[in-house]
Known about the structure:
Chain A is built from 14 helices and 16 strands.
Amino acid sequence: MHLKTKKLYTNTEKKTYSRGIRMKNKGTVVVTLIVIFILISCTTKEPIKIGLSASLTGRNASLGLDVKDGVVFAIERINSKGGIKGRTIELIIKDDKNNPEQAQIVDLELINEGVCTIIGHVTSEITHSVINLMHENDMLLMSPTSSSKALAEEDDNMISLYPSGDGEQRQTVSYCTQVLEIDTVSIILDLDNKAFAENWKDIFVDLFEKSGGKIMDIVNFSSKQNPKFLELVKTALINKPQAVLIIASSIDTTQICQQLEKINPNVQKLSSGWAFGNVLLNQGGLSIQGLFLTNSWDNNSKVAEYISFKNDFQQRFNRNPGFAEFYGYETVMVLHQALWECRDISPLEIKEKILEISTFEGLQNKIVIGPQGNTIGSVSMFKVVNNNFVRVEIP
Amino acid sequence: MRFRREKTIKKELFKTYLIFITLFTLVTGVVIGSILYHDTRKRIYDNNRELAISIANTVNIYLSEIEDAVRMIRDNLEKKFDQKALHNEEVDDHMRSMLKNYSDIEKIRIIDENGYVLYVMPTNEDEMGNNLKNSPILNAVTREGKWSNVFLSETSGNPLLTLSMKLREAFLIINISMDKANGVLSEIQRDSTIYVFDNIGTVVASTNPDDVVLRENSSNEPYLKAALAGEETTQRFTIKENGKTIEMLGTSVSLKNNWVVTVSKPVSLIFDSIYSLVFILIICLAAILVIGYWIMYVIGMKIENPIERLIAWSQMLSKGDYSQSNVEKSYSELDKLASTFSVMAQNIENREIELNRQKEVLYANNEELQSSNEETIALNESLNESEKIANDANKAKSEFLANMSHELRTPLNGILGFGRILMETELKPEQTDYLSNIIYSGERLLQLISAILDYSKIEAGKLELESSATNLKELVKRSFNMIVPQAKKKGLKTVLKIKDCVPEILYTDPLRLNQILANLLGNSVKFTESGKIELIVEVISQTDEECKLKFSVRDTGIGIKKDMQKTILQMFTQADSSITRKYGGSGLGLTITNNLLNIMNSQIDIDSAPESGSVFSFELIFKKAKAQENQFSEQSITAVEPDFNLKTASEKLHIIIADDDPISLKLMKNILERNLDSVSITLAVNGQEVVDTLKQNHHDLIFLDLRMPVKDGFQVAKIIREDLKNFDIKIVGLSADLQEENNQKALDFGFDCFITKPFEITDILNAIPKKP
């Protein structure tokens, strides 16, 4: 909303300015102003337009809003340092309402507005729905949080910043079997983000079963249809699994955890990285304490760049950044480096440049982007302890 | 090519008007614009501020109302209800009525101190028993209540706030939807943008609900930073709306719970009124220009038309048409001009009539004058002819006199020359007496010829005086001494008195002054039989520059009658014929003397009476010579004696004598041979012979007569100097012609000196170069 502020003249400044004008020859002033105007007109470069398309409203808007804040923060930082070769970045924000049709509409709007890249979407399902549109329009999509095997394996116009592959599932399975010694797991998943949730579930099931585990129940729901979480949980607990794996957004995961806690406080709660965020901590209460979940982001990282980022973000938004803000920020930084090195700023050249550079300096680790545009990164296991995400090591 | 534009009254009027109106409009526009700008800005400032404070108050009231409602629930819960038995109809009814009465309240929850949800209205089974420990809504909650930041509703996903109040053993949590607040803001002021920010700078409510939905955070904006710190501020900032950047002017005011209300308006609104004013000004300017131009045109025409008629009238006048023109009444100045013009035209007409009348008279006079003029011209022609004849006659007379002088002087030269030579021979006393008479007669004849020649020069106005520094006393003495022998011979006493104060050196023509004095003294001697002759020179007056002298010749002669004193100064006149017979003389002497004095701006004064002697006097003004000019020559008046003995000169002289007159040749040869011991003389009768002789032999001296056949003296001298390049030989000119121009001409042609005939023997001897 507010990108630029102009300070009002104080009375003293105004007087000085007026005196300065009077002192000079009027003709000279006019000519100088014209020359300055022409020079400014000539030197003022067009801003680089970047689009942001994410779920910004609705029950699952928090992930999109968090990504948005990370992206806005990154762009504010870049612009405050002079932009890219003198060109500032202009961010155009669109709300996909977590709806594939709406996502196509807003993405097309962004394309028509001349953006060179679209950052988004925040869920794999929506991301998947616009892949063809990107291909048809030679547009580059950079998703901060989308992650699915299907997306990772396609040669498309998409760069995914969140590590894709089966890292999360492998970590979860390993931790369940080796540390928690869990053999039976029921799964509750949100099919509104089917591309992510099902992919995640499939890999987990495959790995878990290969490890000797057993999937007791798989309960699907749609977050858009006011799910009855108590009923969902009851269903998931029918066969008394040792653990319940939740593949849902943070707000839904919170609700599920609350119900689980009420029905069976002893059941081990597991979650995908999707739920990672402040909403979980703010609304989870005691129900989320002891929850295990995976992520490639470490809130407690001591890397200097990350601490600097964290402090600046806190100062800017009066709150701590979550993983979505982190990935939103890193996505822009990867794009930023590619834009610096591009001769002609076009979506496909940016994509080629990102793939060519492939390794970028991240806030916590190096970001390595593979030839298919997927990020190759390590994933860690976290446990909620004292309302904080604490990384746990697998022995 | 550049043309000067025609300057007319109309153009000048319009130009002046245009400049004035434009300047006036511009100045007025700038002044009004400036006032309007500042006024509008202040108004917007004030409006914004008032609106911001008003909204702040409204929001504060709104929040207070909610807080009061929640306090009421809190109090009721504490007083009426047992918190451990919340689930009863009475509590539900109370909560439902609260939800109904306060539509902003979305949900009421009671949470125990461990974070467990004890009660939810509207009822939600799922939520009952949920644990919210660690939730910010339970953090630092007081009995008076604590507002949360904006967050998304877990059920609707819409942004909402909570107001948490501490109960004795639980927390009362009220969810408040911002939908209604946003709607209210939109209705407050349509042309203003209003934001309500929470204490971390996130938009809580706005006239643009998207900003709330998008959880916009503006905590980094300077205007908000200041307001979050509790400072009321008005600043300019930009917002993005539909992809456009809009510059805003906003006032931010803090609310009681550290929230901030910002009310802003587009800065362009400030300028809209300015633009309107500019537009109105342009329209007014255009209208004023058009109307003004029309007025100027009318005034211009009113001035121009009479002037045009006056111009036409003046053109008629210039063509001679003096009929009165009808110039319409216009401005009084122009009417006066027309009236003056009319009078002027009438005057001109009258004057012209008078002029024509006079012209006719003049024509008549002119015709007379013309005929008179023709007569005058004829007379003039006749006079010119007569003058020409007279001049020709005069010229013929002068030439005749000159020729006569020459022709007389040449034989006189022979007579006197041979007479003087003969006088040096041994003669009987009787022969000597005869010879003396011959020489005397010859000299008198010579004097007469000279006098006639002088007179003719004076008469022709050809006599020119020279002026040279002269020793006056010496000159006077010598002139006086010339008559002394003759006076003594007649037994007369001679007295010369020169006053001491007479300056010695003065500028004068010594030859002519000598001639004057000699003449007067000669006359005195001539007409005085006994007594004395006296010459007195005295000073009349003198300055540093000039000196006026009086010369008086006094005698004791026969005297002159009064009536004859003027006559004797006329040509060929003496006192009476008896005098001529007794004393002889031509009667030219006094006339020439008086004429010479006239040329010198003086005249002879005669004071005489018969038998009482005469005094002839005259006064002359002399210019004084300066010290360095005191060296003067007396050559012309001094008979120079040879300064060496020619007869003893050791080296032989080769001399040519050229003259077509054989007697002159013989005389010259005789003089030279008699006076020089060693001399070789070659005779030539024409110029060619001289040239031929000089080509063959070297000569030292040549006496060259100017008038000779074949080649004259001038031609010979030119050949000697230019063709023969002979500059060693001395050329001495000889001529009986006394015309003075010959002297200068001779010098120009290379002559060294010039001797006139008849000459003295000493003249010849002085011309001989002095060889050791």
